Amino acid sequence: MYGETHIGVRKDSPGSGLCVSATGPKDMTSKILEKINLQVKETANSAKYYVGRRIPTISIKESFKVMFVAEMPTCPRKETEWDSTDNFFLTKSDLKFVKLLNKLDLDGSYITDVVKTCSLARRPTEEEVARFKDILLEEIAIIQPKTIVSLGKSASDVLESIGISNVCAWHPAYVERFDKWTEYEKQLKSLVS
């Protein structure tokens, strides 16, 4: 049925988690992105990874005008917390970030990482960036975002190093650490308006 919202547990990928999506005219984009996610899985070569995904939303909206890009995902502390399609609810900052994006009407936006494989918190190596660069460029070509927002200065630096222009926002973990949520809301509003 057109416009039907699906909220449930994914069974078609490693792990399970909340997947909120809408059927409708953008289904073709979703199908192409699923193919990219298969490339991510193959390129990750058995390492833990995260695929590109939409910001969880309570509406049926799918809006790709803004694309959020982080450097690389940090490994969850517990094996049971890993889910390749959903890492939004592992920390307080993740949850607050999703709530803020919903408040700013940016729910349904697309979020991905330059490097898809998980690691301890660190900057990605040049080899890791090179390994996933083509996948990121393909994601951008499909999404065709009006604005690419990098999450953190180091993510912005990585994007610039591979020729992708972006606007830089604070990383949600930084915002949580220094309790800058009010300022962050203003920052995001100004970057995507």
Task: Describe, in plain words, how this protein is organized in 3D.
The protein is an alpha/beta fold. It has a single domain (5-192), classed as Uracil-DNA Glycosylase, subunit E (3-Layer(aba) Sandwich), CATH 3.40.470.10. It has helices spanning 27-44, 92-103, 126-143, 153-161, 172-177, 181-192; strands spanning 5-9, 18-22, 53-54, 66-70, 110-113, 147-151, 167-169. Strands 3-5-4-6-7 form a 5-stranded mixed β-sheet, with helices on both faces. The chain has a two-stranded antiparallel ribbon with strand order 1-2. It starts with a strand and ends with a helix.
Total number of helices: 6
Strand element count = 7
Relative strand content: 15-25%
Radius of gyration: 16 Å
* Apparent shape: globular
Q: Which descriptors would you attach to this protein?
A:
about 190 residues, alpha/beta, Uracil-DNA Glycosylase, subunit E, 7 strands, globular, disordered N terminus
How would you concisely characterize the structure shown here?
The chain has one domain (5-192): 3-Layer(aba) Sandwich (Uracil-DNA Glycosylase, subunit E).
What secondary-structure arrangement, pairings included, does this model have?
Elements: E1 5-9, E2 18-22, H1 27-44, E3 53-54, E4 66-70, H2 92-103, E5 110-113, H3 126-143, E6 147-151, H4 153-161, E7 167-169, H5 172-177, H6 181-192
Parallel strand pairs: 4-5, 4-6, 6-7
Antiparallel strand pairs: 1-2, 3-5
Helix pairs in contact: 1-3
